[in-house]
Amino acid sequence: MATAVETLEKLERRVTLTVPLADVNAEVEKRLKQRARTAKAPGFRPGKVPMKMVAAQFGYTVESEVLNDKVGRAFAEVTVEHQLRVAGFPKIEANTDEKVEGALVFSATFEVYPDVKVGDLAAVEVEQSKADVSDAEIDKTIEILRKQRVHYHTKGQHDAHGDGGPDQSAQSGDRVTVDFVGKIDGVEFGGGKADDFVFILGEGRMLAEFEVQTTGMKVGESKTFNMDFPADYHGKDVAGKTAEFTITLKQIEWAHLPEVNADFAKALGVPDGDMQKMRDDIRANLQREVSSRIKARTKASVMDALIKVAELEVPKALLDQDAERLAEMTREDMRQRGMDVKNMPFPVELFTAQADRRVRLGLILGELVKINDLQANADQIKAHIEDFAKAYEDPQQVVKYYFSDRNRLAEVEALVLEENVVNFVIAKAKVTDKVVSFDELMGNNAQA
Predict the structure, then answer these.
(1) Coil vs helix vs strand at 222
(2) What is the spatial distance between Cα 228 and Cα 230, in angstroms, rounded to a whole number?
(3) pLDDT tens per residue across span 271-303
(4) Is the pLDDT confidence value at 422 over 90?
(5) pTM attached to this predicted model
(6) Domains and CATH numbers, the chain
(7) Mean pLDDT over residues 380-405, rounded?
(8) Which of 124, 130, 228, 306 falls between 20 and 30 A from 218, CA-CA?
(9) Quick one: which of 71, 253, 80 has its CA closest to 173?
């Protein structure tokens, strides 16, 4: 049995639950008898242990199980009777203030889902990006692909690709091998010495002054110079200090980029080496990526607008749960990257703002989907998977991968549902088109 639902504040509610003691005792006795059928004790055959001994051994555990079941069932009946949508889990405690003869009394405190009021979508302002893929973008991409396939040759040694040119000194783009030793006040410091150390000039892996001093050197040369470490350098022992370095250049290798020809096209997956087909494939891939990023930007704009136009209270229970989930996801991601996070603190408060946005948007989207019938249908899910699969060498294998697992399908369904909401809002909102450059779009992958 339960009393009326009491409103505490905002979304918090409380209800008093009464559980007849006779029902509890009857259920406890029933379960103890079931336990007695297989109970074991020294000196007794299985199933022949006296009930007093069974009760002594299992009574507390069984009683706790029965109480949990009875109170849980009573709480479920309350939610059905009063049509409550409970957010999170209730906090159930024994109520010692109220006495009911022949019954145990509990208080259940919980939150309910809020009423979500979405304002006039016709007044919503949404920014929709637009970007083109030109021949210049294709050329830039080809250069990136060339650099990904770079290989190195020793300067001065002639082979089928040449000898690296008349300048045999170390220059930007060259891969160099050096020995170096660094000292501060005449004393070597940790991490300041290495033999056969390899790096590429111009990539910024070393401090700028180190690269400047190495540039122009030739094989066999040595040089000593002073270098100032930045005050914010990650090595605290040397941060803000001046070190004396001695470097010896042992090898210089020049970068050879593959020619853009039929062999290059074949290496990119064009069987017959057709150069135009290669460019067409690159254009298609770039357009697919552009489309994806434009969708992400538009989605972010829509989500921002919905947060502004919607009114709702966010249940603290859902906020706390999502913040904890984000903290654990961050911890696991860092662990996967090889970081030792065993003793690293992850204050949940760091994730509260992100969790608030996620929960708030989830409630808003849920409301829009419900009142406007925006659920993802089977045809939309299939089309989304097939479109995504086009980017892979074997699209059918990708389609099979998703349709073979319900969890993967659920992930796609969530994406399609979001797209439905975005399209619904755009159809009603004030949409402003914004032309962005290809480079700007690729450098800013907006996410909601």
Answers:
(1) strand
(2) 6
(3) 999 999 999 999 999 998 999 899 999 999 999
(4) yes
(5) 0.73
(6) 6-113 (3.30.70.1050), 151-256 (3.10.50.40), 265-443 (1.10.3120.10)
(7) 91
(8) 228
(9) 253
